[in-house]
Structure prediction request, 922 residues.
Amino acid sequence: METRMSGMGMGLVLVVLLGSSAVWAGDDLRVYACRCEYKVDPIGIDVSRPRLSWKIETPRKAVTQSAYQIRAAGKLDDLVGGKSLLWDSDKVKSDQSIHVSYAGPDLLSRQRIYWQVRVWDNQGGVSDWGRPACWEMGLLSPSEWKAQWIEPDLTEDTKISNPCPLLRKAFILRSPIRSARIYVTCHGLYEMELNGRPVSDALFAPGWTAYDKRLQYQTCDVTSLVKEGNNSVGVILGDGWFRGRLMGGPGRNLYGNTLAFLAQIEIVYEDGRSEMVVTDATWKASTGPILVSDIYDGETYDARLEKEGWTQPGFDDSAWSGVKVAQHSKDVLVAQEGPLVRRIQEIRPIKVYRTPAGQTVADMGQNMVGWVRIRVKGQAGTQVTLLHVEVLDKDGNVYTANLRSAKQTDRYIFKGAGEPEVFEPHFTFHGFRYVAVEGWQGDPSLDDLTGVVIHSDIAPTGTFECSNPMLNQLQHNIQWGQKGNFLDVPTDCPQRNERLGWMGDAQVFARTACFNADVAGFYTKWLADVAADQKTDGAVPHVIPDVLSRGQPTGGASAGWADAAVVVPWTVYLCYDDTRILERQYLSMRAWVDYMARRAGKGGLWKQDFTFGDWLAFATTRSDYPGATTDKDLICQAYFARSTDLVQRAAAVLGKTQDARRYADLLKKTKETFRREFVTANGRLASNTQTAYALALAFDLLPASQRADAARRLAADVDQFKHITTGFLGTPVICQVLSDYGYLGQAYMLLNRKNYPSWLYPITRGATTIWERWDGIKPDGSFQDEGMNSFNHYAYGAIGQWLYAVVAGLELDPDHPAYKHVLIQPHPGGGLSFARASLDSMYGKISSNWQVKAGLMRFDVSIPPNTTATVTLPKAQEKAVTEAGRSLSKVEGVRSVSQKGTSVVARIGSGTYSFEYPWSAP
Ligand code: BGC
Prediction:
């Protein structure tokens, strides 16, 4: 509950007595990292009530925010001067420091709002006003678009990839300019320049959405690019996801067979007048150096066809073609919501060498996603070819079969400038570690090739490290799997002719993704497409954006895949306390559960004609050594219960009590059906597999009386096989269930195992990303089935959450999302002598570091202001635990301590703590 108080609050400096030490409060409290809708100073947003978040910093312990005040103004001077304010929240007594909704007057298109916040704390401290931040609204209704859709008037054969069209327009601005914006989007992909300079560093704009229903536009501040006098704007269009090749076969033109462009440049002059330059019939069109550009196949660039200065004023376009004005919808336009795709990192090859087959190959040392920038001389008309592959075969030659029909080949044709020419592609990306280079004059040196790593610009938030280097490599591989597959949509893989938003993969990896990076905005954008592409009967397609069942009345609806529509919003809610995502996705979440309930009918058993099951689970042809196929009906029913449970919880969070009751009833029935159909009287599951037990326990499907027995059976199965047998659905939960039920040793055994099948086996084969299959490369060096053998597939990386939450012990409390209350409970074991994890949460940095050395456990914990934590110190006796040399009862910030079995449980306030106690190896 929030209460409002007017006025400026109490005195600025108070002496606060904490324990025995006196602390001066007042000038040591600071707000920072002020963000709006997860972004720093965003422009062009279309959220009508943007949410504001900030972090708090202070050297003092046990600090919580007791009140905040936000003020907002249309001008920076007014804000800082505290006059002509648009909104002043006054002092609001509340500990809310994330997602505070703007509550000033309704916002208009283009409106820019400056805001700042100050806070009070529970110890009498008050901060200064924080650094002014801002946001700017985009175009809030279709009628704001004066621009017309245009299409290049060029002859094309749309059955194949065509040269990328160029569009340009020259214009004159008559006075000095105060500000300029571009609102821009297209059918296809665009790269735009104004007066010879890029309008933004975005790649793959406008991104991939359910284009018929939602098409994003981007807003760029181009004030510094325009000038009084002659100006010129130019854009290159690529086929991208819109009409390029998607999925197998020659399939092109999925969303339409013509490229189109829409842009509105809005200028405000110093004297307050404004002007617009828009796309219309006066634009000119041509083709340029990009002859072929396709996401799967790569790009062919003929530098001889470059048009020098074509985005600059004074360029002669008299020979260019015109454009056609098209009537495409503007009702589908939405502002850019998630992070843009950008060039994030550059890496150099670790070696260049000749393969036994005689090819020149550069080894980037890392399976990466993006492309290679080359710098090389050549004669006009000769070409360099770059073929990108993930792995080498047994003999050390490049291996292309797992790319299926994706060519992943860039070709650069020299203009023969006499000096080194620099090339990087535009509308394609490759998943690769090795680049086979052909046509290079002499041998490339390590400096001639640069790996450009691209992905959605998600800020890294998590770190995990421990004493086992192989587990550190595993963490590295998980993070690189995420980088490579967070390219505007969460994809299955980045290399073969697929690269789609596979729902099952996204579902199992979401929690780990939220540890590694700030993915709230990324998922928010994609979840809108999940809802948009969901079928009217509630079925959720296998991939989003839906390119597999487009135009069909129903489709998808596979257990564990479709459930992403429920699990991912719930995960975003938990990790970022984002209730708005639940509000926005609620109907979609519910529709999916209603679909299953309808199909289940009176009998209550949900079955589907086709579902993927525990995809890629351990299989064998040995008759004396069974595989691990879990009954698909059992999986369907387990996920039916899981999603129903989450919808029930979402309804409760949103205050929809009737719905909460209704779905609680459905959940009860669904669990009863599960037990009736799949659990024997003695608690054995119909499928005696690791996945069956792990799902039943993780989703709480068994009565209390049968749980311990089920866990015992699971552990026995692990003991018997001595390895994991799970596929996509069992893998994310098996270690969690084992550790929850007291089988930590078995969980660590699975984690530490180096032979196939295991997480570490690929590392013994040099993996730098997570593989799609446990045995992508078999122990004898041969490959798994080339039809499905990606070496960069994040799904099995879902173990990441267990590393953070259990090994290092950094977990959220679902009753206090976003780590407002942190559960810190490390699980030493597995031969580790230390593990440390950190997470830059919505409130600030949390860390949990344990180390066992010379009979001592040292455990360093840090939680940010405005959070609390319950710390569980394993295998500890209360009296033997000290914090920085003092007994716990004397430690400032420690609110309570109790002995719970063999653990000591301490409730702490914010700050940094260093616990120590005697440790004997378990
Ligand atoms: C994808 C998967 C996906 C699966 C469906 C594959 O081709 O790469 O990761 O989930 O199809 O089972």
Summary: Residues 492-493, 498, 502, 504-505, 612, 615, 788, 793 surround beta-D-glucopyranose (CB under 6 Å). The first helix runs from residue 76 to 81. The first strand starts at residue 3 and ends at 5. The two ends are 46 Å apart (CA to CA).
